Structure formats: C-alpha cells, structure tokens
Amino acid sequence: MRVRYVLPALAAAAALMLTGCVDNSTPATSGTDASSAPTIEKDDAAAALVPADVADTGTLVIGTDPTYAPNEFKNEAGDPIGWGIEIASGIAAKLGLEPEFQVAKFDNIIPSVTGGKADIGSSSFTDTIERQQQVDFVNYYTAGIQWASAAGKDVDPDNACGLKVAVQATTFEDTDEVPAKSDACVAAGKPPIDKLKFDTQDAATNAVVLGQADALSADSPVTLYAIAQTGDKLQLAGETFDVAPYGMVVAKGSELTVAVQAALQSMVDDGSYQAILDEWGVADGGIDEITINAGANG
C-alpha cells in the first residue's frame, strides 16, 4: 500500500514546519471540506435493518478518538474531522440517522460500545481476533504499519533493538507490533526496544522530530500524513508491512452490525465511499466488498 498526500499549503502549516513540530489535533487544513464532501442519501433497505431502539432515537452515537490524523482528528474549532469521520457520517446518513460523535480516549471506545453508551466506534480500529472476543467489526478499509524516523537517520524496523520507538497508547502498534519486535530482540540476546507511549499521535510524532525517539510506528495513512505535516523533518523507515483491515466497532451479536454493513456497501456501490477516499488521498486502502470480522482470516 502506497499512499500519497498533498502537502499543506496554508501559512499555519508552514509555521508548524518552521517550528519542527506537528499538532494533528488542530491542523491547518483538513484535506477536504463540507463543500467538497459527497452528498449521501438514505438507503431504505439498509435503514430497515436498524434495530428499533436505535432507529427510535433518530441518532447514531459514534465513539471516536480524534487524535489520529488524517483518519480522525479535530479542526480549529475542535470538531472531529477526517476521512474516517466522513465515512462514519455517511453510515449514519445511509441509515436515515443523524451522526452524534462521542469523543473519548481510544481505549474507552470499545467499553462504551459494549456498555451501550455508543452505538458504534469509528477510530481506525484494526480488526483483530483478540478484539473480536468483545465486539464485532464491519470492515471498511485496509492499512499497513509504516515506521518513520528523523530525516537523515536510517532505521530498520526489523533491526530496531535498543532504539526508542514512539507509539500512540493502546493502538495495535503499542499493544502488539512493537512488543513483538522487542521480544524478538530479547530472544536473540539483544537489548529490547524502548517503547515510548503517548496519548496522542501528534505527541508521538513530535518525539521523533525533537530527537526524543529514534522512530515512530503508526498505521500507514497516519505516518505518511505526519511526514507531510512536518516537511523535511521525517522520512520513511522501511516498507509498509502487516496490512490488516480496519473495522467499525459494533456490540457483539448486535443486529446493528448488518445494518452498518449494508450502509457501507451502499456507499461503495454509489461511489460516495470512493469519493471520500479520493478527497483525502487514501484511496489505496479502499475495498470493494464490505465484510464482517475479516481480521479472523488474517
């Protein structure tokens, strides 16, 4: 998977580059705006699948952690934006519901869904077998893992023993990928990877820019966006690997799962899904068939 992004051109973005830091929570440009977003109409067949207790509210409560640009982040007004946010809003529109975004820390979203506080979770969740023990996933995208290092500093993700690697806390990179690499280092008699956890992705990115970490590990669209945001401060480290599906989180066994699947498939079929991905420059991870719990097949 190779994704390219348009470099930010506004003055505020230039200021970020001059300071050498990136703040993805209040970026200078969203990559798209409401005027360019596709109009998405209700799909009666998909809406008919919505459980009555959700349909009666007229809203789809969506848990998200908007700290993972360009997928989910905040505009200058503090509102959630990003291509993942637009996909989730499209699901609501297809189901004849109004989207209501419930901002939460990443590790609180699944408990919110299982506890009934949110209807779905949309926050770049990698669909894994472990997570499927708690929730179901409606798969809508594929992304790999991509490392980045400071410009001029070559880092090999497969030979990072003893290095400091920044990650966003509770992401797949934090819980699975980097720990597995570190364990392999120890098993080979080498020093472990010093994993540095941060609450937000922009903090993890800044750790590399400021020399506090040797590299960062994040999902491929996120890493490529971070490189674009920081100008010449970061570079790719190795190739994209471990491509896996993203999934919308739905309560285990809920009837809402098939409704969300039908809504997303309707977006694929009418072209609104592709239009969103194209606007944000992330079309390489798009899929043609919306599935459920595809992570079990990985």
List keywords for this structure.
298 residues; D-Maltodextrin-Binding Protein, domain 2; nine-stranded mixed sheet; 11 strands; globular; two-stranded antiparallel sheet; 2 domains
Please outline the helices and strands.
Blueprint: H1 11-19, H2 44-47, H3 52-55, E1 59-64, E2 73-74, E3 80-81, H4 83-94, E4 98-103, H5 106-114, E5 120-121, E6 135-150, E7 164-168, H6 172-187, E8 194-198, H7 201-209, E9 215-219, H8 220-229, E10 234-251, H9 256-270, H10 272-280, E11 291-292
Helix pairs in contact: 4-9, 4-10
CATH superfamily of the largest domain: Periplasmic binding protein-like II
* Main beta sheet: 9 strands, mixed
Instruction: Detail the poorly predicted runs.
Output: 1-35
Percent in strands: 15-25%
Q: Quote the average pLDDT.
A: 89
CATH class of the largest domain: Alpha Beta
Oligomer: single chain
What gross morphology would you assign? globular
List the helices and strands in order: HHHEEEHEHEEEHEHEHEHHE
Which structural class do the helices and strands define? alpha/beta
Q: What count of domains describes the coordinates?
A: 2
